[in-house]
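Bumping with the actual sequence this time:
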Amino acid sequence: MANLKNTSDTELTYLINAGVKEAFQEIFERYAGRIYQFSLSYLKNEQDAEELVQDVFLKIWEKRESLDKSKNIKAFIFKVAVNSIYDFIRRKNVENAFRDFSRANFEKQSDNTWHQVIFDEMSDNLETLIKQMPPERQRVFRLSREEGLSNEEIASKLNISKRTAENQLYRATTFLKKHFKADSLFAMLFLYLWCG
């Protein structure tokens, strides 16, 4: 394919939508640096920012067939980046809050390895409960808590009303609070950070 350096973003969007990898590579080259700097300003860690850039553009490629060719792809890329940063910070905050709490409440002999084992076990328990929910409720919860989408964005993505999205999210968090084994301060903190 001819050099795409002078091709407009709009034309590249059409090509990406059609699965043209060279067009995707050109968009990556145009915006990866900006997304990296944008991410770094929030994450304060070069490796995390690099990983986030890869994640953002992977999502763009995975959603290529549903790209709205009438809209600005630059704005879409930054929107995906913002959601990814939100999700990343939320996950980090959950892990960091858990570790801070455990350090403050247990002696040093219970080291970080032990804390990670407990954290992983609670994550597995949460995942098991999520999988017990109806498929649409699972999707709404994951889009909210794992991808950081707003209720409006979830409604649009799943082609449901905002009210339905809110209802499903409420039912999901209520179910998790009821069935998650919050039999320790650790578990209560973990659940609050995910469902609060």
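The tokens above came from a reply further down the thread. The chain has nine helices and no strands.
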